[in-house]
Amino acid sequence: MPKGSPTAPAQISEDSHTMRRRLLYQMRKRGILETDLLLSSFAARHLADLPRADLDDLDALLANVDWDIFHWASGKTAPPPEIAQMPVFQKLRDHAARRGASIVRMPDLPAE
Questions:
Q1: What are 35-88's pLDDT values in tens digits?
Q2: Can you tell me whether residue 5 is helix, strand or coil?
Q3: ∠ at Cα 60 (93, 43), nearest 5°?
Q4: Could you give the C-alpha distances from 95 to 15, 32, 35, 101, 102, in angstroms and in order?
Q5: Burial group, residue 74, by CB count within 10 angstroms (0-12, 13-18, 19+)
Q6: What distance lies between CA 57 and its chain's CA centroid?
Q7: Number of helices followed by number of strands (H, E) in the chain
Q8: pTM listed for this prediction
Q9: Cα–Cα–Cα angle for 88, 107, 18, nearest 5°?
């Protein structure tokens, strides 16, 4: 998939609950600690309340390279226009701006 593409591969008949669980896993296991911390803390705070359209955009955002996501969210580089206009990306960018105010660790997984 091209960098910055707003279209992620469709998950056949994936309900919102299953999608949230998959996205949570993908946000915790990126491979680069900085991105893991940013995305996992964002997921802990926002994932449960995101509407389906934001989940779809988040899925597309996660198809990008870890360092690109981190640099876009932290404001180090400008994201492609199709990423910048995503409401969920704006929430992620706001989250990244506030994140430096506290010690960050990987959030615990929710109990089921």
A1: 999 999 999 999 999 999 999 999 999 999 999 999 999 999 999 999 999 999
A2: coil
A3: 50
A4: 26, 18, 12, 11, 12
A5: middle
A6: 9
A7: 6, 0
A8: 0.79
A9: 55
